[in-house]
Predict the 3D structure of the following.
Amino acid sequence: MNRQAIVPVLALLIAGTASAAVDPALLNLAMPDAKVLYGIQVQATLASPFGQFAVSHLPAAITRFAAATGFDVARDLQEVLVASAHPGDESDVLILARGTFPWDKLVAVAKTTGATVYDYHGVSVITPPERDAKVLAFLDASTLVVGSETAVRDVIDRHAASAVFAGPLLQKSQQASVNAQAWFATISPLIDMVPAPSNSNSAFNPAVLLDSVIETWAGLHFDNFGVTVFAEALTHSDAEAQGLATFLKLAAGMLKGTPAAALQNAQVTARGPVMRISLSVAERDLERSFPSAALERAAR
C-alpha cells in the first residue's frame, strides 16, 4: 500500500462506518453547539446479514490498511459518532470513534508518511502532510478523534474538563439511537442538509418535501430480514405535519423501482405538529442497492 495514503484512508474508514443507545462518554466529546449528529453501532450492524454482506464488499484500500496496521474494522471498531454545528458545511465535521486502536503502531506509521505528530496536553495529534487534510488524535487506546486541528484540540480540552453534552439535541439523539444500530438527529431545518437539485425541472424536488421540517431524527434497525427505518419530523403546525404525511404518500405512489415499493408500504402518521414514518426494506433489496454490488451488476 502507498504509505502516503495510510492516514487519509484511516479518516475515510472512520467517516464511512453509522442495539444500545449512543455512548454518553462519546457524546460528551461533541461540540456543545452541535446541530446534527450521526451515529452507528458498528459491531451490532456488522452482525446483521447486511452488515456481513457490506464487510465482504469493503474497498481493497481498507483491506490493505488493515493488513498494514493490524486494525480490523469488523473486529476493532465499536461505535462512530459524527457531529457538526453547521449542517451542509463539511469543514467543521467532527468524527469520534470508540474501539480498540493500536494507536502506537498507527502513530508510528503516520510518521513514515510525512505526517507531523506533536503533543497537545498529553495527547498525540497527527497532522497529515496534505493541505486541508483532517487531523487525527487518540485520546486513549479506545477513543479516536478526526476533524480540523481546532476541532480536535477542542475535543481534547473537553475531555480534560470532563464536559457533559446537554441541550435539545441530547434528547433527540437518545430517541433516535435507543433502538437503532444507525441513526441521525438534527435540530436544524432539514432543508439545510439537502443540496439544491441540479435540474430545476425535475419532477420531484426534495425541497418541497423537507421545507416544513424544522427538527427531525431517524433510526435504522438491522435484523435477519433486512432493515426497519423509523423517523420523526417536527413541523411548524398540525396542518404542516398532516400535509407532509399526505405529500409523502402521494410522492411514494409516483415513484418507480425498489425504493418506491418500500415507501408505498410505509406507515405514515401525523399527530399534532409531528409526522412519524416507519418502513421495512428486505435484505435482498438492501444488497441490490449497495454501491459495489450495483457496479458489479453493471459490469456484467
The longest helix spans residues 238-254. The chain is about 40% helix and 25% strand.
